[in-house]
Write a structure and sequence with these properties.
The chain has 208 residues and is of the alpha+beta class. The chain contains 4 helices and 12 strands. The longest helix is centred in the N-terminal third of the chain and has 16 residues.
């Protein structure tokens, strides 16, 4: 369950400075425009989870595929095989070691419904306008915008202290996601080889 939560929630050096309200509004507007025109997105990812209690990092790699209308496939390849597929109101889980798939109706599971919603909105950046769930602060650093999302809703506060999204200024897409859990654990997901609006087979999102 923890691994699914850390899917939620895509680099340059320099000193970050707080943006004006106008800059924050500009980021929201430009990301919203890119999101509106985004049919598909696919990329590789590297996920690093730092476990505070053990003081160690666990690194995993895989592929991510997104298609408009709430279709998302998050596929771990190393060091283990695990697949999470969201297709509308259905979620499929497969750990790679069994032929049996677990299918969940998100409308009947409040936790998965919220996780699925935040996953999609974080990947495409639309969570920047979700004022009911997050308080957002935007900073700028070199060639990227950095949006820090602090939960305002009680249920999200129970999971995360904050979520940080790094945006490529030129492409207006998320390139890195940082999530700090309430217990101090931290997960960083770096998205690589990002491609948008290329054809993806609908079969990638089959849930049954």
């Amino acid at each position: 369950m923890k691994q699914i939560i850390f899917l939620i929630l895509l680099l340059c050096g320099g000193t970050a400075s707080h943006c004006s309200g106008q800059t924050a509004s500009q980021l929201r507007a430009q990301v919203a425009e890119v999101t509106a025109n985004m049919r598909t997105l696919q990329c590789d990812f590297v996920q690093t989870k730092h476990v505070k209690m053990l003081n160690e990092n666990m690194v995993s790699r895989g592929r991510m595929f997104y298609m408009r209308n709430d279709r998302l496939r998050w596929e771990y390849n190393t060091p283990y095989a695990y697949t999470f597929i969201l297709n509308g109101d259905k979620v499929l889980l497969n750990n790679g070691n069994t032929k049996r798939n677990d299918v969940i109706d998100v409308n009947k599971n409040k936790v998965f419904k919220e996780i699925s919603r935040i996953m999609v909105s974080s990947v495409v950046g639309s969570c920047l306008t979700d004022d009911k769930t997050f308080k957002t602060t935007v900073t700028t650093s070199g060639a990227e915008w950095i949006a820090t999302l602090v939960p305002v809703r009680k249920d999200i506060k129970q999971m995360f202290d904050k979520i940080i999204l790094h945006f490529d200024k030129k492409r207006k897409v998320v390139t890195k996601i940082e999530m700090t859990e309430r217990n101090g654990d931290k997960t960083t997901i770096v998205l690589q080889n990002i491609r948008t609006n290329e054809n993806i087979s609908a079969n990638m999102f089959t849930v049954h």
